[in-house]
Design goal:
Layout (H helix, E strand, L loop, with lengths): L11 H18 L5 H11 L5 H10 L30 E9 L5 E9 L8 E3 L8 E3 L2
């Protein structure tokens, strides 16, 4: 290696500083654009750059295009629903809203077993402040 190589100082940083500043401004404006598209904007501003010089300055400035977030994909193998094989495995919930003659609102959640033949439980309507009473009939 020649003796002058370790002490070599490139003259380009002074020449490249305005280009790097313009690159940083443009990449802040257009964060999804890479060095190729930014080069088009730089040429419009009057900077004549080859693609290799643009790429070198892009890397030197530490600019990167942020990665796109991958889309959520539908699972190819979905877990299968278990078929109910005994009573009380599947329940249905139903919300019942009603008003009394005096104007009070009643709200109830009714729960009943779904697929198997079993009489559904019914709820006697009471004011919202009281607990509901269950009838098995």
């Amino acid at each position: 290696m020649p003796r002058s190589t370790p002490s070599y100082e490139p003259r380009l940083p002074a020449k490249d500083a305005p280009v790097i500043e313009a690159m940083k401004e443009l990449s802040a404006l257009y964060p999804r654009y890479g060095y190729r598209r930014i080069r088009v904007f730089l040429r419009r501003k009057g900077f004549e750059l080859s693609w290799s010089r643009t790429h070198r300055l892009w890397r030197q400035a530490g600019l990167l295009v942020p990665r796109k977030r991958p889309r959520k994909r539908i699972a190819s193998v979905r877990p299968r629903m278990h078929t109910p094989f005994k009573a009380n495995m599947v329940w249905a919930y139903d919300y019942v809203f009603d008003t009394t003659a005096s104007g009070r609102r009643l709200r109830r959640v009714c729960r009943s077993p779904m697929p198997f033949a079993r009489p559904a439980r019914s709820w006697r309507a009471r004011p919202a402040a009281e607990k509901p009473q269950r009838w098995d009939g």
